Amino acid sequence: MKLGIFEIDALSDGPFLLDGGQMFGVVPKVLWEKKMPADQRNRVRMSLNCLLIRAGRHNIVVETGIGDKFEAKLNDIYGVDHAAASLPGQLKERGLDLTDIDIVINTHLHFDHCGWNTSRQEGRLVPTFPRARYFIQRGEWAHALQPTEKDRASYVRDFFEPAEKQTEFLEGEAEIVPGVKVEIVRGHTEHMQCVRIESEGEQAYFISDLVPTQAHLALPWIMSFDLYPLDTLENKRRILPELALLESIVVFPHDPTTPWVRLMVSSGKMVVTPVS
What's the predicted TM-score (pTM) here? Predict the structure, then answer.
């Protein structure tokens, strides 16, 4: 899809499953299950959405999914299904090799957002994208190495630490290449960064886990995973109307059917328009 002089493409590292109660926090199951039905283990089906940005001579990947390093038990718990799709496979379908990726942006380092940062080769872990620079907030990296009891299960060092030598640590808002910026959006984690893409008056916004699926657009629909839920609430209140006024494309990290939509204001209300 063209976005000004850029080309953007929604990719998937396949479907996976998470507990519905965790995904919707204080929202009662009788409400959220109308939007995302649960299986017999109370899990809802989601997608591991990533974004490919072709920005001039730069091929940029935002998020790298869950990867292939989980043992069988965790693959079962999370319902990982790479037979349906995988990030490397999706890149290959678009004519790109792993060596063609110049930049990787991780919004944060939970295992479902950085899994393909690294891969196993000849019995050791190496960066999956050998030529790429990886961009992450320094504070997120530090927290990922020493998480709290509450979020320890969300971080797996093998998914990101072996790529440290190729990682560039950011301290707040930054422009990665002209037209591609990251900005801190505290809530899900303290240092989560969202990605704003702008070209020739067009805009797309990778909103990360501020709004993981279209079902989470309503302000109080906030995950129990969020470390700072009131910050999530205030950032949704601030960012979503702005994106709607700009008629921005919003890319969701986990929506299983609609990876992106265009937010617009109609008759004073925010509405969602599908993007083909």
Answer: 0.97
| Whether the Cβ atoms of residue 130 and residue 162 lie closer than 8 Å to each other | no
For tokens 């490397």, the residue is 88
Q: Is 276 a residue whose pLDDT tops 80?
A: no
Residue 254: C-alpha distances to residues 8, 16, 267, 269 (Å): 17, 9, 29, 24
Q: Got the DSSP string for 18-76?
A: EEHHHHHTTS-HHHHTTTS-B-TTSEEEEEEEEEEEEETTEEEEE---S-S---HHHHH
Q: Can you list the domains of the chain with their CATH numbers?
A: 2-207 (3.60.15.10)
CB 115 within 8 A of CB 64: yes
Tell me the per-residue pLDDT of 39-58, one tens digit each, with 9 for 90 and over: 999 999 999 999 999 999 99
**Residue-wise pLDDT tens digits, 197-223:** 999 999 999 999 999 999 999 999 999
- Round to whole Å and give the CA distance between 150 and 204: 32
